[in-house]
Amino acid sequence: MLSLLCCFGWITSCTPEEYEVDLSYGLTHAIAMYDGNENTGTFQFYKLLNRSMIDKGVSYDRTMDAILEATVPGGAGGEKYTVFVLQNDDVKDMSLTYFGKSAIELGTTTVTTRNKAFKLLQFYYVVGEYRVENLPSKLKMDNGYEISISGNKLTGFSGTQVQIVSGNNEARNGVFHVIDGPLHPVTTSSFVDYNTSYFYSYATYEDKKEYNPY
Question: Would you say 126 and 82 are in contact if contact means Cβ atoms under 8 Å apart?
Fold first, then answer.
């Protein structure tokens, strides 16, 4: 079992066996430590979380890596998230298409590009915990876009047929499913800014002051 002494700063040198994730970890940490290797698995998705910056709302100017370490504010969704996690090659393809660099951290160097990374990330997470066996036939992601689901197969924005290759990976504040293809628009000309997010408008003003952990 991964020792608690293996802190987040050592992430590329500590390589736990798959699924051996301490549930005291939040989702970002669990995703990054899924295989503990910067060059394989899901580590590039962690980098996407690290570079994605919310552009308005109660969590304005926050990155998703920090937010996904906390429980869902306002008590919504059982205070948990579900994240569909891209594998490294798909994150690199996204970054190359939208930011001109296959390394997401090299492509998202301005506030504008980091805000765009958040808009793309919204196709991959939703408030509430949905395990594979409980996935509905339709699921609205954080931006309001509705994906279609049949068993462990999902249909992305561009009609891409995507399969869950590793489901029900648990963390303290939710669950993530590793998928084998993109849910976001695969061409920039197809991209739609839905201009909505749970984090733009959750709860009331007083609730935001009470629950916002950021």
Answer: yes
Between CA 152 and CA 165 the distance in angstroms is: 8
3-state secondary structure of 209: helix
Angle at the Cα of 140 (from 151 to 195), degrees rounded to 5?
Answer: 150
C-alpha dist (Å) from residue 18 to 33, 34, 91? 9, 6, 20
Determine the angle formed by the axes of helices 111-121 and 43-51, rounding to 10 degrees: 130
Half-sphere exposure of 128 (CA within 13 A, CB side): 12
**Is the CB of residue 98 less than 8 Å from the CB of residue 52?**
no
pLDDT tens across 31-75, in order? 998 876 666 689 999 999 999 999 998 888 899 999 999 998 878
Assigned architecture for domain 14-208:
Roll (2.30)
Q: What is the pLDDT of residues 163-197, one digit of tens each?
A: 999 999 999 999 999 999 999 999 999 999 999 99
Domain ranges of the chain: 14-208
Q: Tell me which residue has tokens 């937010």.
A: 67
pTM of the model: 0.86
* Concatenated DSSP letters of 155-202: E-TTS-EEEEEEEEEEETTEEEEEESS--S-SSGGG-------HHHH-
With 0-12 / 13-18 / 19 or more C-beta atoms within 10 angstroms meaning exposed / middle / buried, residue 148 is: middle
